[in-house]
Amino acid sequence: MSSTDPALTRKIRQLCAAGYQHYDAGDYKAALRLFYQAWLLLPKPQTDWVEAGWVLTAIGDGYFRSGQYQPGREALQSALCCPQMAQAPFIHLRLGQCLWELGLYDSARTALLRAYEIARMDIFSAEDRKYYFAIAGLLSRQTLNEPSPGISSEQHQKLFKIQGN
Description:
Blueprint (H helix, E strand, L loop, with lengths): L5 H19 L3 H14 L8 H16 L3 H11 L9 H13 L3 H15 L9 H8 L4 H4 L8 H8 L5
Helix pairs in contact: 1-2, 1-3, 2-3, 3-4, 3-5, 4-5, 5-6, 6-7
């Protein structure tokens, strides 16, 4: 399926926007409550709707930020089952991060590599470098030394530079 009716989509966006205000303030519990309210508005089966992908991504992100990696993993894996979400690099990034924190390193590398394949280095620019380094060995030496489009050589070098060297 595709999108819900415009009025419902507006309401879901409003709830998610309100949730992200709490998220930005570090109140992940309040953010998650609003994201779940948005989830409950979706017609069943929820994962048939594009909006479900947005909401599940927000839920997974909220759980990741609050250190609840298993429910974050579950929400993000479900988000990937929603229409138009399989190519969303942020979902793969957050899923990889949750998996990494759960000690599921091989699965984490697969998800992180997928995020890299879609968005290149840019997706890692605001993240802890450990997630990029988790996949560095999987990338060819040539790929590691070439900045991706949209990222300057200086940004690439700063991200790639290993602390202490």
